[in-house]
């Protein structure tokens, strides 16, 4: 039996619920309210009452008619209106879920009614009130828009529609059994999807949302990421960067640092030590990255990959050095003329700074600049291009100061030496004496049990030249000089100048690889493409292999002797590197290398940059030089030795400075002064000159510097210089030096040195300083004055008076 509620029945019979309840009471059927359900018995009783009264049945009979008439009207007339209603319904569903129940349930009831009693399709009237009903009737056509709206608002609509669908399915199953499978299936499909949602969203929209974070948090436990095995860094890392690399929170790193005694903030840069401390604590390996500076041409020299199978023998590069007039130029010309011009008849001799000769089928490259100026210039700029040095000593003159300098230059550059004993044609030639003297400088002839090759020659007559060349080849062979002609070229500038017609012209010595016309090239801070190449005999060439000197054009600027050159793969990179080098050229050259001074010696020692203190000792007499050298050698300070690279008697010269610059040495002058050129060179090169008058003070000072205990308070500053032009002897007063101030100024309270021919003969104080007859506080450059020196009366015309003060210096 089907059931129907009181209010539904009331409607059916066109009565109020109250009337129906009253009628029921009359029939002794108790109902509590209009929602009470009427069972079969009560229904039939009621039907009897109202049928008798001509209510429900009459309506029922008329209903189908109305319905039949109305139906086409309603479907045909306004489907739109239907749809709007439907939408409104959906809206209602959205807002309250509870509303659905009473709305849907009556539908079921009415549907059931419908199935029982066809005319009760009048309940389609209900449809106008209760949307789902007609919707279920027109499943196929009306489901679609609804599905669309589902998609629009999946959360709410699907849930509501599911209920609708479920109801509808029930309806259709009840009504059509298995016949409406297709429609049922479709709905079931919907149900499946919706069911999923329903299950998840059971507590409601908000409930669902609220539950979200609750369920998320516990399901994703904070498991720290695994530590990396190794991290790398460049220079430093901030705490945040380090944390990221270690896959840890910055706060954790900060905590760790704190425990290790380092207070840090998240953006603070950590130094190498701190980074290592943290990484060690985590057990992570750490490595500092070394980035290659593309613009540093030296890098390309150091990085040269050695491809053994591509290596080939290369000619030795030879420099000729020696004392003035001992025959260097004559020897270079002699070799060149006999070997070059003879072989290349008609060849125009061209001086490009270097040339090549062939001896026994093997090439030798000679640097065409006699003397060690060029040699040291290049070495000072870090370019090592010479494989072998020939020291020319005139057999009739013997070892001279510049011979010794040359030897020391070669030794400092660790280059093998061959001694050419020249002018053997001269009757006064005494080669034994030369050998003897050279032994004292560590060059012992093979005949005497040493390992230095001595070759007697006459450069003028061309005698012994072949032997000399053979010996060069022999020494070169021992040195196993190799290069790879297949790689791109790199090397050094021998000389360069600006030519009016050709622009920048540079002689390059290819040290490795092969240089070709058209190569993009960076030379020092200049760059360009090799436009044209000319060899040492003036011939145009297309390529130049290892140890070949060539003159090139095509650079945008003039490089300097000793500059490096490197060929690049493409012009763009060459330009980039060249331009960036040009920009930093001046700065770089100034701050390139910190020269050693007694002030920074200890610092450089502590940083491991210096293991030896190279010293050049110059003194007034040879005896003092030796004594000083011996005392300096005796200094014993842990971790560093004194290495005397050159000694000599006499004033400090430019050559001493260039040797010091090339060898990162300091110059100690004992009772001697640097000459003008040496002073200028020392300033330009940043070479330190220490001048002293007492041996033990020199030793003390150097020892203190090595121990990092150099008295930092005062430094001597020379404030001026005067030349003694006239001397006047006055009894009781002593000798007055009528002087002219040539440099700076002389003050009354300054210290004074008397220098005669570059040698300090007295150091003391000024007794009186007068302009005409008046005492003067100071006398400036360009003025004359009378000076008397305390406790010294032996001033002579031509002496130099040097004024100095002790100035407090600030140390970094
Ligand atoms: N008798 C003789 N004279 C020579 C010989 N070699 C050079 N001379 C002469 O010595 C003088 C100096 O020779 P140079 O070749 O100019 O000497 P240098 O070493 O180049 O001299 P600087 O360039 O001034 O350093 C010249 O007059 C040469 O002719 C030689 O083997 N025998």
TrEMBL record:
<dbReference type="GO" id="GO:0003743">
    <property type="term" value="F:translation initiation factor activity"/>
</dbReference>
<dbReference type="Pfam" id="PF04760">
    <property type="entry name" value="IF2_N"/>
</dbReference>
<feature type="binding site">
    <location>
        <begin position="368"/>
        <end position="372"/>
    </location>
    <ligand>
        <name>GTP</name>
    </ligand>
</feature>
<dbReference type="InterPro" id="IPR009000">
    <property type="entry name" value="Transl_B-barrel_sf"/>
</dbReference>
<comment type="function">
    <text>One of the essential components for the initiation of protein synthesis. Protects formylmethionyl-tRNA from spontaneous hydrolysis and promotes its binding to the 30S ribosomal subunits. Also involved in the hydrolysis of GTP during the formation of the 70S ribosomal complex.</text>
</comment>
<keyword id="KW-0396">Initiation factor</keyword>
<dbReference type="GO" id="GO:0003924">
    <property type="term" value="F:GTPase activity"/>
</dbReference>
<feature type="binding site">
    <location>
        <begin position="322"/>
        <end position="329"/>
    </location>
    <ligand>
        <name>GTP</name>
    </ligand>
</feature>
<feature type="compositionally biased region" description="Low complexity">
    <location>
        <begin position="157"/>
        <end position="191"/>
    </location>
</feature>
<dbReference type="Pfam" id="PF22042">
    <property type="entry name" value="EF-G_D2"/>
</dbReference>
<dbReference type="Pfam" id="PF11987">
    <property type="entry name" value="IF-2"/>
</dbReference>
<dbReference type="InterPro" id="IPR015760">
    <property type="entry name" value="TIF_IF2"/>
</dbReference>
<dbReference type="InterPro" id="IPR023115">
    <property type="entry name" value="TIF_IF2_dom3"/>
</dbReference>
<feature type="domain" description="Tr-type G">
    <location>
        <begin position="313"/>
        <end position="482"/>
    </location>
</feature>
<dbReference type="InterPro" id="IPR027417">
    <property type="entry name" value="P-loop_NTPase"/>
</dbReference>
<dbReference type="InterPro" id="IPR000795">
    <property type="entry name" value="T_Tr_GTP-bd_dom"/>
</dbReference>
<dbReference type="InterPro" id="IPR044145">
    <property type="entry name" value="IF2_II"/>
</dbReference>
<feature type="compositionally biased region" description="Polar residues">
    <location>
        <begin position="135"/>
        <end position="151"/>
    </location>
</feature>
<dbReference type="Pfam" id="PF00009">
    <property type="entry name" value="GTP_EFTU"/>
</dbReference>
<dbReference type="InterPro" id="IPR006847">
    <property type="entry name" value="IF2_N"/>
</dbReference>
<protein>
    <recommendedName>
        <fullName>Translation initiation factor IF-2</fullName>
    </recommendedName>
</protein>
<keyword id="KW-0963">Cytoplasm</keyword>
<keyword id="KW-0342">GTP-binding</keyword>
<feature type="compositionally biased region" description="Low complexity">
    <location>
        <begin position="97"/>
        <end position="132"/>
    </location>
</feature>
<feature type="region of interest" description="Disordered">
    <location>
        <begin position="52"/>
        <end position="221"/>
    </location>
</feature>
<comment type="similarity">
    <text>Belongs to the TRAFAC class translation factor GTPase superfamily. Classic translation factor GTPase family. IF-2 subfamily.</text>
</comment>
<dbReference type="InterPro" id="IPR036925">
    <property type="entry name" value="TIF_IF2_dom3_sf"/>
</dbReference>
<feature type="binding site">
    <location>
        <begin position="422"/>
        <end position="425"/>
    </location>
    <ligand>
        <name>GTP</name>
    </ligand>
</feature>
<dbReference type="InterPro" id="IPR053905">
    <property type="entry name" value="EF-G-like_DII"/>
</dbReference>
<feature type="region of interest" description="G-domain">
    <location>
        <begin position="316"/>
        <end position="464"/>
    </location>
</feature>
<feature type="compositionally biased region" description="Basic residues">
    <location>
        <begin position="199"/>
        <end position="215"/>
    </location>
</feature>
<keyword id="KW-0648">Protein biosynthesis</keyword>
<feature type="compositionally biased region" description="Polar residues">
    <location>
        <begin position="52"/>
        <end position="79"/>
    </location>
</feature>
<dbReference type="InterPro" id="IPR000178">
    <property type="entry name" value="TF_IF2_bacterial-like"/>
</dbReference>
<dbReference type="InterPro" id="IPR005225">
    <property type="entry name" value="Small_GTP-bd"/>
</dbReference>
<dbReference type="GO" id="GO:0005829">
    <property type="term" value="C:cytosol"/>
</dbReference>
<dbReference type="GO" id="GO:0005525">
    <property type="term" value="F:GTP binding"/>
</dbReference>
<feature type="compositionally biased region" description="Basic and acidic residues">
    <location>
        <begin position="80"/>
        <end position="91"/>
    </location>
</feature>
<keyword id="KW-0547">Nucleotide-binding</keyword>
């Amino acid at each position: 039996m089907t059931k129907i509620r009181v209010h539904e029945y009331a409607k059916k019979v066109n009565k109020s619920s109250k009337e129906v309840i009253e009628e029921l009471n009359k029939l002794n059927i108790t109902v509590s309210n209009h929602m009470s359900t009427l069972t079969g018995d009560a229904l039939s009783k009621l039907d009897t009452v109202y049928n008798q009264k001509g209510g429900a049945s009459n309506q029922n009979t008329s209903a189908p008619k109305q319905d039949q008439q109305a139906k086409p009207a309603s479907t045909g007339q306004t489907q739109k209106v239907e749809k709007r209603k439907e939408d409104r319904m959906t809206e209602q569903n959205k807002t309250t879920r509870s509303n659905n129940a009473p709305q849907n349930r009556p539908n079921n009831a009415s549907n059931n009614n419908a199935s029982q009693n066809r005319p009760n399709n009048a309940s389609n009237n209900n449809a106008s009130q209760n949307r789902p009903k007609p919707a279920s009737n027109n499943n196929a056509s009306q489901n679609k828009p609804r599905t669309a709206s589902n998609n629009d608002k999946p959360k709410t609509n699907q849930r509501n529609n599911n209920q609708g669908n479920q109801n509808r399915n029930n309806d259709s199953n009840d009504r059509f059994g298995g016949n409406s499978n297709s429609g049922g299936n479709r709905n079931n499909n919907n149900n499946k999807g919706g069911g999923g949602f329903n299950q998840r969203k059971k507590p409601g929209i908000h409930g669902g949302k609220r539950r979200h974070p609750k369920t998320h948090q516990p399901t994703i436990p904070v498991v720290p990421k695994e530590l990396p095995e190794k991290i790398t860094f460049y220079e430093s890392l901030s705490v945040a960067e380090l944390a990221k690399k270690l896959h840890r929170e910055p706060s954790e790193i900060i905590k760790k640092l704190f425990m290790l005694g380092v207070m840090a903030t998240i953006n603070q840069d950590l130094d190498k030590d701190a980074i290592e401390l943290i990484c060690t604590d985590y057990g992570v390996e750490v490595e500092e990255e070394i980035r290659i500076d593309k613009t540093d041409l030296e890098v390309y020299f150091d990085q040269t990959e050695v491809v053994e199978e591509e290596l080939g023998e290369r000619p030795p590069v030879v420099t000729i050095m020696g004392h003035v007039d001992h025959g260097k130029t004559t020897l270079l010309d002699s070799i060149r003329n006999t070997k070059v011009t003879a072989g290349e008849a008609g060849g125009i001799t061209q001086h490009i700074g270097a040339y090549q000769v062939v001896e026994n089928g093997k090439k030798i490259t000679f640097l065409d600049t006699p003397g060690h100026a060029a040699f040291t210039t290049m070495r000072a700029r870090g370019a090592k291009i010479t494989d072998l040095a020939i020291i020319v000593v005139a057999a009739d003159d013997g070892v001279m100061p510049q011979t010794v300098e040359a030897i020391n230059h070669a030794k400092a550059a660790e280059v093998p030496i061959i001694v050419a004993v020249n002018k053997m044609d001269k009757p006064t030639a005494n080669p034994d004496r030369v050998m003897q003297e050279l032994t004292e400088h560590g060059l012992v002839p093979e005949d005497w049990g040493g390992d230095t090759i001595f070759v007697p020659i006459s450069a003028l007559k061309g005698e012994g030249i072949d032997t000399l060349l053979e010996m060069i080849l022999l020494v070169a062979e021992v040195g196993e000089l190799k290069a790879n002609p297949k790689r791109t070229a790199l090397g050094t500038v021998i000389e360069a100048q600006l030519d009016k017609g050709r622009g920048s012209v540079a002689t390059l010595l290819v040290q490795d690889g092969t240089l070709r016309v058209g190569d993009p090239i960076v030379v020092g801070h200049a760059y360009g493409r090799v436009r044209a190449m000319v060899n040492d005999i003036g011939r145009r060439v297309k390529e130049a292999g290892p140890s070949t000197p060539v003159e090139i054009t095509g650079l945008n600027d003039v490089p300097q002797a000793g500059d490096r050159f490197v060929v690049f793969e493409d012009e763009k990179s060459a330009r980039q590197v060249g331009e960036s080098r040009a920009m930093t050229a001046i700065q770089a050259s100034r701050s390139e290398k910190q020269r050693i001074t007694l002030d920074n010696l200890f610092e450089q020692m502590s940083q491991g940059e210096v293991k030896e203190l190279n010293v050049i000792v110059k003194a007034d007499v040879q005896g003092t030089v030796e004594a000083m050298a011996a005392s300096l050698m005796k200094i014993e300070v842990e971790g560093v030795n004194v290495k005397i690279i050159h000694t000599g008697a006499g004033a400090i010269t430019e050559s001493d400075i260039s040797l010091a610059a090339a060898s990162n040495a300091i110059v100690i002058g004992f009772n001697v002064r640097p000459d003008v050129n040496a002073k200028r060179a020392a300033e330009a090169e940043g070479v330190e000159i220490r001048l002293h008058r007492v041996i033990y003070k020199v030793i003390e000072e150097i020892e203190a510097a090595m121990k990092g205990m150099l008295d930092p308070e005062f430094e001597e500053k020379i404030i001026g210089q005067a030349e003694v032009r006239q001397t006047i002897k006055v009894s009781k007063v002593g000798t007055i030096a009528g002087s002219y101030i040539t440099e700076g100024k002389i003050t009354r309270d300054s210290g004074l040195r008397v220098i005669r021919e570059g040698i300090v003969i007295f150091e003391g104080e000024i007794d009186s300083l007068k302009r005409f007859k008046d005492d003067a506080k100071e006398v400036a450059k360009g003025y004359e004055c009378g000076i008397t020196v305390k406790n010294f009366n032996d001033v002579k015309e031509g002496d130099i008076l040097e004024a100095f003060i002790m100035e407090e210096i600030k140390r970094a």
